């Protein structure tokens, strides 16, 4: 009987969709963000804007939405070597991973989320990691999350569950899930106020704000385009519906 959840909430498209998913499925939901020395503070600002709009536009969710927490983990920035924490161009590394990969970030985030959930009496950790659109990040894999759940359960002596609603969804499917959860109002909120761009740019596009060139923007834009493609003609299903 899991009724209380903690959503790892960055203010981006994926975590906003995960928050809507949690608010639909759990009686009490809290949010957790991290200040890890990321280059652009716009991500942290977007979190607050999205939370405010969710409370205002979705009163049936507002009653379930509890406190927001932000933890400072700038030790990640001290480790360095990532284009998300240092002013370096986005590129592929010799190990085949993009330098947007912040080693250990999600592992640390899940550990801290588990500790906070322990103290707050929360039973489910909700995160937007995905194997469908994960840019090759090993800490977004299903196996990683299963291993983290086992480690947290053993280390905390609690029956915590890690929920990954987007694990097998590409970006087009994430847009569709958001629409199913909150209709056009949630789509508009994600487009206008969430932030995913690695460059911290807020140039408006049909799919949201961003530079339009970084990998995060390209994934988001291509998912938007696929989501808007007309469906093939099928019996009993009109084209374009």
Automatic annotation (TrEMBL):
One annotated GO biological process: tRNA queuosine(34) biosynthetic process
Superkingdom classification of source: Bacteria
Record key words, sorted: ATP-binding, Ligase, Metal-binding, Nucleotide-binding, Queuosine biosynthesis, Zinc
Cofactor: Zn(2+)
GO MF annotation list: ATP binding; ligase activity, forming carbon-nitrogen bonds; zinc ion binding
Binding-site list for ATP: 9-19
Pathway terms, separated by semicolons: Purine metabolism; 7-cyano-7-deazaguanine biosynthesis
EC number: 6.3.4.20
Membrane-spanning residues: none
InterPro entries associated with the record: QueC (IPR018317), Rossmann-like_a/b/a_fold (IPR014729)
Entry-linked Gene3D superfamilies: HUPs
Substrates-to-products reaction catalysed: 7-carboxy-7-carbaguanine + NH4(+) + 2 ATP = 7-cyano-7-carbaguanine + 2 AMP + 2 diphosphate + 2 H(+)
Pfam families xref list: QueC (PF06508)
UniProt binding sites for Zn(2+): 197, 211, 214, 217
Group of enzyme by EC: ligase
CC cofactor note: Binds 1 zinc ion per subunit.
Family: Belongs to the QueC family.
PANTHER family attached to this UniProt entry: 7-CYANO-7-DEAZAGUANINE SYNTHASE
Free-text function comment from the UniProt entry: Catalyzes the ATP-dependent conversion of 7-carboxy-7-deazaguanine (CDG) to 7-cyano-7-deazaguanine (preQ(0)).
The protein's name in its UniProt record: 7-cyano-7-deazaguanine synthase
Native species: Comamonas denitrificans
């Amino acid at each position: 009987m899991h009724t209380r959840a903690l959503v790892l909430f960055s203010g981006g498209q994926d975590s906003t969709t995960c928050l809507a998913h949690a608010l639909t499925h759990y009686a009490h939901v809290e949010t957790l963000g991290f200040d890890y020395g990321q280059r652009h503070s716009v991500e942290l600002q977007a979190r607050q804007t999205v939370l405010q709009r969710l409370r205002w536009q979705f009163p049936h969710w507002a009653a379930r939405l509890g406190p927001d927490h932000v933890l400072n983990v700038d030790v990640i920035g001290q480790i360095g070597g990532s284009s998300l924490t240092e002013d370096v161009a986005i590129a592929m590394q010799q190990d085949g991973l993009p330098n947007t990969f912040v080693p250990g970030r999600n592992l640390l985030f899940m550990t801290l989320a588990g500790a906070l959930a322990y103290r707050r009496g929360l039973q489910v950790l909700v995160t937007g990691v995905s194997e469908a659109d994960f840019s090759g990040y090993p800490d977004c894999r299903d196996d990683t999350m299963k291993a983290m759940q086992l480690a947290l359960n053993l280390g905390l002596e609690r029956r915590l569950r890690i929920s990954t609603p987007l694990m097998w969804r590409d970006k087009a499917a994430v847009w569709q899930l958001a629409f199913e959860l909150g209709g056009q109002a949630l789509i508009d909120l994600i487009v206008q106020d969430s932030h995913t761009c690695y460059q911290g740019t807020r140039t408006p596009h049909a799919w949201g704000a961003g530079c339009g060139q970084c990998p995060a923007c390209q994934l988001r834009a291509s998912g938007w385009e696929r989501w808007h493609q007309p469906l093939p003609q099928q019996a009993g299903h009109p084209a374009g519906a």
